[in-house]
UniProtKB/TrEMBL annotation:
<feature type="binding site">
    <location>
        <position position="72"/>
    </location>
    <ligand>
        <name>Na(+)</name>
    </ligand>
</feature>
<keyword id="KW-0407">Ion channel</keyword>
<feature type="transmembrane region" description="Helical">
    <location>
        <begin position="97"/>
        <end position="115"/>
    </location>
</feature>
<comment type="function">
    <text>Fluoride-specific ion channel. Important for reducing fluoride concentration in the cell, thus reducing its toxicity.</text>
</comment>
<keyword id="KW-0406">Ion transport</keyword>
<feature type="binding site">
    <location>
        <position position="75"/>
    </location>
    <ligand>
        <name>Na(+)</name>
    </ligand>
</feature>
<dbReference type="InterPro" id="IPR003691">
    <property type="entry name" value="FluC"/>
</dbReference>
<dbReference type="GO" id="GO:0140114">
    <property type="term" value="P:cellular detoxification of fluoride"/>
</dbReference>
<keyword id="KW-1133">Transmembrane helix</keyword>
<dbReference type="GO" id="GO:0062054">
    <property type="term" value="F:fluoride channel activity"/>
</dbReference>
<dbReference type="GO" id="GO:0005886">
    <property type="term" value="C:plasma membrane"/>
</dbReference>
<dbReference type="Pfam" id="PF02537">
    <property type="entry name" value="CRCB"/>
</dbReference>
<feature type="transmembrane region" description="Helical">
    <location>
        <begin position="32"/>
        <end position="53"/>
    </location>
</feature>
<keyword id="KW-1003">Cell membrane</keyword>
<keyword id="KW-0812">Transmembrane</keyword>
<comment type="similarity">
    <text>Belongs to the fluoride channel Fluc/FEX (TC 1.A.43) family.</text>
</comment>
<keyword id="KW-0479">Metal-binding</keyword>
């Protein structure tokens, strides 16, 4: 069963990563916002969808595919950290802290909202 869930999750992760890559290639609004709007939107929407997935009655296979797989591959903590550090180096520290705060707080709110909807 573990091997089966690993394969299911890996397939979902590949799909989620491709969706993230596709979204991140669209024009960024960094000149307007000085940070990647794509990463914030991906992480917030992923948190929202994960909240829904965790609370609806699905088989363990579907939860692995959708949650660990697609949403795990879609959202990206490492890119979020890289962009936070880069923003701090390129601009003032307050903008970096605002990016960090907005990303975390809105992702938590989105997850809770999704969980309540699920």
């Amino acid at each position: 069963m573990l091997f089966k869930l690993t394969i299911i999750s890996a397939f979902g992760s590949a799909l989620g990563a491709e969706v993230r890559y596709f979204i991140s290639r669209y024009p960024r609004f960094e000149k307007l916002f000085a940070f990647s709007l794509a990463t914030i939107m991906i992480n917030i929407s992923g948190s929202f969808i994960l909240g829904i997935i965790l609370d609806i009655p699905l088989s363990i296979e579907w939860k692995s595919f959708l949650g660990s797989g697609i949403i795990g591959g879609l959202t990206t903590f490492s890119t979020f950290i890289l962009e936070t550090v880069s923003l701090s180096a390129k601009t003032n520290k307050r903008r970096s802290i605002a990016y960090l705060f907005i990303s975390i707080v809105l992702s938590l709110i989105a997850f809770e909202f999704g969980w309540q909807l699920g």
